Every structure is written in structure tokens, then in C-alpha cells.
Amino acid sequence: MFKAILVCLVFVMAASNSYAKTYGEDFMMPRGGEYSLTRVFDEMKNKKKLKEIVVAGELSSVCQMKGCWVSLKTPASKVLTNTCDEAGLSAESQKEMRVMFKGHKFNVPKDLKGDVFVMGTVKKKKLSKYQLKHLLKDGGCSEEQIKSVKGPIYKYQMEATGLKSTKASGEVSKKS
Predict the structure, then answer these.
(1) Can you give the pLDDT at residue 96?
(2) Could you tell me the residue range of the domain that residue 121 belongs to?
């Protein structure tokens, strides 16, 4: 009887974890309290930062050099093809948000796709023309798109301590 209960308990625990992989620090999911990007953008209009929040979103792009950042998109931004389309948009018209990994302590697979949850702090950040061009190059944008960058520009950006993906993807090596 004890074995049957233990097996059932293990099965229930495994079934309740719908996350394929956690990158960076593990974190507890808030019960219905995660932020959508729309909510983040609305709340950031009146705040300097949102600290230690969980944001749910769909990946729009991943750094193609090392997997050291991702971009999340809002449901309304389905028309955007990738991070290259957002280069010149200011925070007020932003439909995507770049997520940098705190201290470059972890990377994600370059082929990661789908829905994710990220834990971290959102701030309005000034990006120089050089920084924008660097990020676009890492994002696999064309030379024409990179050359068209005008800077500086302000963007909402998250510094994440952890990311949970909902689908399995390729392997990535740990930072040494």
C-alpha cells in the first residue's frame, strides 16, 4: 500500500511540472500572478522598475551567437518577424522586450522556441547606437537593418535570473 501511494505521489509531482527545462536559477511560479508583456509595459509607464517579477511570453528571437539573451513578444506583435523589426521603436511603442541574463551566468539553446516564463527585474534602459547594432548583429539581422539604426533609444528591458521553457529544445553548454 505504501509503495502504491509513493508511486502515485511521484507521478502527480512529475505531471504537475509542465516545464521542460529551467535555465539559470530555479524560481517558484506565482499562482496566477505572472505578468504579461502588456501588463509590464502598462505598469512601467508609472514606475522606474518592476523588481523580481515573473513574466510570461512567447519567444520572438534568441541570440544566435551564444544564446545569451532572448526577446519576448506580445500577442499583438505576431506580425513582427523578429527582433530586427523592433530596432527603432522606443519604449512607448515597444511590442517586444529583450531579456538579458544577469551577469551572463547562463545561456539558452539558440534554437529555443515557444512560451517561457522569466524571473527578474524590468527597467527602462538607454541603448546606444553601438549597443543596438551589437544586439541586432547577435540577432542575425541583415547589414541593411544594422546600418539603419539610429540611436540612442530607450527600451524596457529585463535582467533575468532564471528562465523556464515549456518545451524541450537543443542542448546548451554551461558557462564556465
Answers:
(1) 85
(2) 20-165
